[in-house]
Amino acid sequence: MKTIILALLAGCSAIMAAMPSLAADTCGAKPVRYAINHVGGTQFEVNIEFAITGGQFDVGFHPSEAAPQGEADFITAMQARNATGDWQDVNYIGEGSWTLPDAKTAGYTALRYTLSAEHDRASWDIGKEEIAYGFDEAFYFVGSAVLPMDYSWAECDFEVKFDIPANWTIVAPWPKTGDNSFAVHGANNVHRNLFVTGPGLRPHNTVIGGMDVVILEQEAFREAAPVFQSLLSQSIERYVELFGSAPVKQYLVVFGEDDGNDGGAFAQSFGQRLPAPIRAHEKLMWGRALAHEALHSWIGITIRPKVHAELQWFSEGGTDYLTGKTLFRIGQIDANDLLFITEGQVRRYFLGRMASGPVSLADAGVEKQKNRQLVYGGGALFHLFLDAHMTAKNGKGSYEALWRSLYENSSQPYSFTQMMAAMDEASDGAASEIYAFLNAPFNPNTFLQRMTEIGLPTAAFGPDELLVRFSGNGCSGSREARCMPAFLAK
Ligand SMILES: [Zn+2]
Question: How far is the CA of 300 from the centre of ligand 1 (A)?
């Protein structure tokens, strides 16, 4: 079991490597067709029909003691159908990848395999909500864990069709073409989404900020569903107001039971896990996770990086920072909670600087899990300082206007250089200065001085005992909301 704070957002996966962009003529005339057939118990037979293949099929790779080949350990008996209609064994080449029986790819038109939905027997290095788990009597799956993908299909159309018992249903974020079938465009939307299938599912449909949102929870959270829905609605409505629109039309949110808090955000869905039943004293944990994962639809998935690693600090830090500010603004947390969150971000940065050494925030993202404290803590503080600077210079709302501008110009992914240039333009170069400050040789005193200057005087005893207070509005170090500096105040 992970400790709660460390588990929070531990596996958060909004920012995924971009798939290679390939022309649509790699797809053939018909959609690529995944047929998922439940054959009893935890067993599924899956058949993939395609016209053209690049010859390699991949699932995610998160090895663990009980599953040394990660997700691939739950996929067996994979065979490919060749030009003469014969089924041949494929080659497993390790790390979640299979190749066709021979070097030529022409003539192969189908793949089949057995999927054992027994992922709970492994302990995953990221959250189960990023892989698969038993969902009461049903099964929760992330596409990348159970549906091998040929990356030459990046821009193809897909049909995902289920053959399931009469009392089962499917909850997925994809457009329906029939009771048990869906049409999906783009490999990313197949791979980077979750779906749940089995008996007893009772999803709720609602419209939030113009999005059709489906909320599904395990039985243990049935009474909590209105609480989740309320927080989700208020957060998303604020995000829509801030960014100007919702990034997707359909959205699926799934809550599962676990010992700790964790969440994973996908293309049109997110999955969260938390202890059941929900308890009032844990709201700051699961509420933040919920609002964080929802915010990833805008930050990380729509405003997205060209290179996965180098903007992790920007996306995760920005999401964490704006989540706290939003929860305070909508009245879900109070000023003390916001201080607690800020103290945690400073602590993460201090400990992260000591643990990771003199590495830049961008380079730290190459090994995100190893450098988690620096990536999340340093990234959140970057946004805190940027907001303070922009608000002082250009007035309240100028930092939010930057977010809206980044969102409106997000038709293409951002490189590190493009992102810094956009932020520098809006802040008269403050973004580069703050980024350099956070990467400079670590000097806690200089850091504490800067916190004082923005109205958040901070005391530190070593790197781990932190006290942040408010000194806005003529106050001299208070926990009261009326003393917040202008950039944080409602
Ligand atoms: Zn995240």
Answer: 8
